[in-house]
Specification:
The protein is of the alpha/beta class. It folds into two domains: 233 residues, 3-Layer(aba) Sandwich (Rossmann fold), CATH 3.40.50; 210 residues, Rossmann fold (3-Layer(aba) Sandwich), CATH 3.40.50.2000. The protein contains 16 helices and 16 strands. Helix 3 packs across helix 4. The relative contact order is 0.11. The mean pLDDT is 95.
């Protein structure tokens, strides 16, 4: 299909693609699983949709790719632009500042210029591929200037922006360099979507303090909590292969009575060291013993060129070593199993099936789909979820054992009450959360947003 033809155009920093080399050395694009892709791709199939973004390479080709029925339009970026836009302003300025957990915020003026340049390149690509009166759906903090940039090129399109991560309260937000340019960057959108009501309110407060330039108006703001493809994950987790792997994993971990599980991107917002320290203090206090319990922590390496992420990896390695040296079981079994690697989808699902208690304890998190995946994998209604209220998921997964983020005693108590919960209560709670997610799934999320955009008067 030629350009200027697509009635739905998605924009995100990353295209949902990775390249696999076949035996002849030829690179083949494949849809990458997980995250935003898993959430958005099902809403695009069969809709004459295009997706604009970076393909993860440096100075790659801008030829479009057809992957699983979605037309992908790569925006080629140099290594310098990626360093300044992605590692710099996106992940060393916006990410720590928007999560508002006291993490160090760095800034360089050249990062800001690169951020604007990458946003402009993406906006130009959208303007090229969108059909007249198309719907444009822009994703996340790496792309906050795209709405106003597209609007000045294409007044005819209907535009939604969805913010996947927290939007902080006014004092924190106002400490952002170039804050008014970032807020007005969103003003080209018709609707801005957020994960939690608090995010929506914080955005509206920021917008009230930032008048629009002529020709633009403040977008409508609404809360749309993201979800997962519940039926698909449930079905995949019930396969014989996954069930078998889950059994094998438990054997591999020394057949403990109880498995506690954490699964995260290795990110300082996820509270991974704090979680392992809570486990350590439970072992120290004698409330639990390595004779019975193993903590399995899986972490996918992330943003590895950013110093704060490197520091976290080092901290985790030494923390795991310390706990394992201090508390081996009488059979020499290690209390913490730490897998710092990307796992195949089936292995990930098998972890969720194998666990007894899943501990999701971010200091702050837009939503946290891992919590929802765990629930989707528990077809027999067993298992308990410990969930920090720092995650957007805690707003509606209220039958989890909820705990305050960043409070070691609260986490300690929450893990203990999860371990002590009787089977009947655990079943009731899990069944209620499964019922909720079966209805509030990713298709409902996408159709809410796309439905709201479709109901706007045509331009
Ligand atoms: C979060 C963000 C996404 C981002 C993802 C993975 O979920 O909201 O926008 O794509 O993390 O991070 P990465 O830096 O690898 O794209």
């Amino acid at each position: 299909m030629g350009e200027n033809q697509y009635s739905l155009v998605v924009v995100s920093n990353r295209l949902p693609v990775t390249f696999e080399r076949d035996s002849a050395g030829v690179l083949t694009p494949v849809i990458s699983p997980g995250g935003l892709v898993a959430a958005v791709a099902p809403a695009l199939r069969g809709k004459n949709a295009a997706w604009v973004g970076w393909d993860g390479t440096f100075d790659g080709s801008e030829n479009s790719l057809d992957v699983d029925g979605i037309a992908l339009f790569p925006v080629a970026l140099s290594q310098t632009l990626v360093e300044k836009h992605y590692e710099g302003f996106s992940n060393s300025t916006l990410w720590p500042l928007l999560h508002d957990i006291g993490a160090q915020v760095d800034f360089e003026e050249s990062w800001w210029s690169a951020y604007a340049e990458v946003n402009q390149r993406c906006a130009d690509a959208v303007a090229r591929v969108a059909a007249p009166h198309a719907t444009v759906w822009i994703h996340d903090y790496q792309m906050m200037l795209v709405p106003s940039m597209v609007r000045s090129l294409r007044p005819d399109v209907t535009m939604g922006y969805f913010h996947h991560i927290p939007f902080p309260s006014p004092p924190q937000w106002n400490s952002l360099p170039h804050v008014s340019e970032v807020v007005t960057g969103l003003y080209g959108a018709d609707v801005c979507g957020f994960q939690r009501h608090s995010d929506t309110e914080n955005f509206l407060a920021a917008a009230q303090a930032t008048p629009p330039a002529s020709g633009l108006i403040i977008p409508k703001a609404k809360t749309y909590p993201i979800s997962l493809d519940f039926a698909d994950v449930s079905k995949a987790a019930s396969s014989e292969v996954v069930k078998h792997k889950a059994k094998e994993f438990r054997k591999q971990w020394g057949s403990p009575t109880t498995v506690l599980l954490g699964v995260d991107r290795i990110d300082y917002t996820k509270g991974i060291p704090e979680r392992l320290e809570a486990f350590e203090s439970l072992l120290e206090s004698g409330h639990i013993s390595t004779e019975d319990v193993v903590f399995v922590q899986a972490g996918s390496p992330s943003r590895e060129n950013v110093a704060s992420y490197q520091a976290l990896q080092t901290r985790l390695d030494s923390l795991v070593k310390r706990i394992n040296e201090k508390f081996p079981s009488s059979q020499g079994r290690m209390p913490v199993v730490y897998w710092a690697k990307n796992l195949a989808r089936e292995d990930m699902l098998a972890l969720f099936v194998a666990a007894d208690v899943m501990v999701v304890s971010p200091l702050r998190d837009g939503m946290n789909l891992v919590a929802k995946e765990f629930i989707a994998c528990r077809g027999d209604n067993s298992g308990v979820l410990v969930l920090s209220t720092g995650a957007g998921a805690a707003d509606h997964l209220t039958q989890a054992v909820l705990c305050e983020p960043g409070n070691p005693e609260a986490l300690h108590d929450a893990i203990l009450s999860a371990l002590a919960m009787d089977g009947g209560e655990a079943h009731t709670r899990m069944a209620a959360m499964r019922d909720y997610l079966a209805v509030h799934d990713v298709a409902a999320w996408a159709s809410d947003i796309l439905g709201d955009l479709a109901s706007l008067p045509s331009k």
